[in-house]
């Protein structure tokens, strides 16, 4: 039986990438087609981690391949290959890190740290190597949210070893200085400390480093956004008018320094009463979605205001870790896949456009 890659791609065309809705199997993503009698096998390589979707996608691809004349069985292997992307500003990469994602908010208390750690855990659950860097000098929450503490160890007296918990590599400004001390720092001191934190940690083979940024849009945030080679930023907001106004300032700040916005997350979108199940839009309705539409930015989704999200995050076992198969974890994982897919779409930005230089003896 002769089956070409073209035949296979035509048969698989109806199976869509769940994020982009484009065909999952393309000339670039399908490889290693093997044909043996009426059995075929092939691999599909995705560019973002999607472990929780693999069984379903495998079944869809296999069924589609079996629609080819003469094919009775089709074995499909799906893998993910995450490449390094950096906003095209010629910024140098940090060793051991492929992509750096800032999680930011224009205003404090909207759930930026909770979102950052749950997104990090969701990316990890989907199969990526993930680190979290807590750069929130005004109130570092990651030690509490990841149940980690103490000064980081060092092997060579230069680089800090990240702490490890729940599969994540973690470093936090909170491991190094007392909160009152950090809050008293003026702009340059704070951004120098944060730069050191990011550059002097021995991150190991990370696909994504999630940076929990200090809330707000002042000098410190602007300097961080400029100095760290960010792949892009996620803006967390509540649907409330005032938070949205601040989120807009956040968007403008990143745009000013050429950092792409990878998505908007609407947190505490609706309160579900834990007794009667009644849904109430305490902070207004759909504000984040409208903000994303107005600014033509990806909307990653909304999370409910739920007591267990707070209790789990505040006790060092964030929801994606504590209830990995629950509804809220499902929401975070869907957001994480879309975010990672948006990171992959930054392709082509990794190198600044240089003109071709031709050296010729004849000129
Ligand atoms: N969706 C949610 N449902 C319930 N509680 C939440 C939710 N998101 C965050 N919280 C809780 O709200 C509080 C503030 O959240 P968090 O610390 O993540 O906000 P932040 O924006 O990072 O704040 P900061 O200004 O300290 O940087 C925390 O106690 C957290 O557990």
UniProtKB/TrEMBL annotation:
Annotated GO CC locations: cytosol
Keywords attached to this entry: ATP-binding, Hydrolase, Iron, Iron-sulfur, Metal-binding, Nucleotide-binding
Family: In the C-terminal section; belongs to the Mrp/NBP35 ATP-binding proteins family. Belongs to the Mrp/NBP35 ATP-binding proteins family.
InterPro entries found in the cross-reference section: FSCA_dom_sf (IPR034904), MIP18-like (IPR002744), Mrp-like_CS (IPR000808), Mrp/NBP35_ATP-bd (IPR019591), NUBPL-like (IPR044304), P-loop_NTPase (IPR027417), YlxH/NBP35 (IPR033756)
A Pfam family of this chain: FeS_assembly_P
The protein, known as: Iron-sulfur cluster carrier protein
Lineage: Bacteria, Pseudomonadati, Pseudomonadota, Betaproteobacteria, Burkholderiales
Gene assigned in the entry: apbC
PANTHER family, per the entry: IRON-SULFUR PROTEIN NUBPL
Function: Binds and transfers iron-sulfur (Fe-S) clusters to target apoproteins. Can hydrolyze ATP.
Every MIP18 family-like domain range: 5-76
GO biological process, one term: iron-sulfur cluster assembly
Residues involved in ATP binding: 106-113
GO function terms (MF aspect): 4 iron, 4 sulfur cluster binding; ATP binding; ATP hydrolysis activity; ATP-dependent FeS chaperone activity; metal ion binding
Originating organism: Comamonas flocculans
Subunit structure of this chain's protein: Homodimer.
Highest taxon, organism lineage: Bacteria
């Amino acid at each position: 039986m002769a089956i070409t890659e073209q035949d296979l791609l035509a048969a698989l065309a109806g199976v869509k990438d769940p994020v982009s809705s484009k065909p999952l199997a393309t000339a670039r993503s399908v490889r290693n087609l093997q044909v043996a009698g009426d059995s075929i096998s092939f691999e599909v390589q995705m560019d973002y981690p999607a472990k929780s979707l693999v069984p379903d996608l495998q079944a869809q691809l296999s069924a589609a391949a079996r629609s080819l004349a003469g094919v009775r069985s089709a074995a499909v292997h799906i893998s993910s290959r995450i490449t390094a992307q950096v906003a095209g500003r010629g910024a140098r990469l940090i060793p051991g890190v492929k992509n750096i994602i800032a999680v930011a908010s224009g205003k404090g208390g909207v759930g930026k740290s909770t979102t950052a750690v749950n997104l990090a855990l969701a990316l990890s659950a989907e199969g990526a190597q993930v680190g979290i860097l807590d750069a929130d000098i005004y109130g570092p929450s990651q030690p509490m949210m990841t149940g980690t503490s103490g000064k980081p160890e060092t092997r060579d007296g230069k680089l800090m070893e990240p702490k490890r918990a729940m599969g994540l590599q973690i470093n936090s400004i909170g491991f190094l200085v007392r909160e009152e001390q950090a809050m008293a720092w003026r702009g340059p001191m704070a951004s120098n400390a944060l730069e050191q934190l990011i550059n002097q940690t021995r991150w190991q083979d990370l696909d994504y480093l999630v940076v929990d940024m200090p809330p707000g849009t002042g000098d410190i945030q602007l300097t961080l956004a400029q100095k760290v080679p960010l792949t892009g930023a996620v803006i967390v907001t509540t649907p409330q008018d005032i938070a949205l106004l601040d989120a807009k300032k956040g968007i403008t700040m990143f745009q000013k320094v050429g950092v792409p916005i990878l998505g908007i997350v609407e947190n505490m979108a609706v309160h579900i009463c834990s007794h009667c199940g009644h849904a109430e839009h305490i902070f207004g309705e759909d504000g984040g979605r409208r903000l994303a539409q107005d600014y033509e930015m990806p909307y990653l989704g909304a999370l409910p205001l739920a007591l267990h999200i707070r209790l789990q995050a505040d006790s060092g076992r964030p929801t994606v870790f504590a209830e990995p198969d629950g509804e809220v974890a499902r929401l975070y994982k869907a957001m994480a896949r879309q975010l990672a897919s948006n990171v992959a779409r930054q392709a082509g930005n990794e190198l600044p456009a240089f003109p071709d230089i031709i050296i010729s003896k004849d000129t």
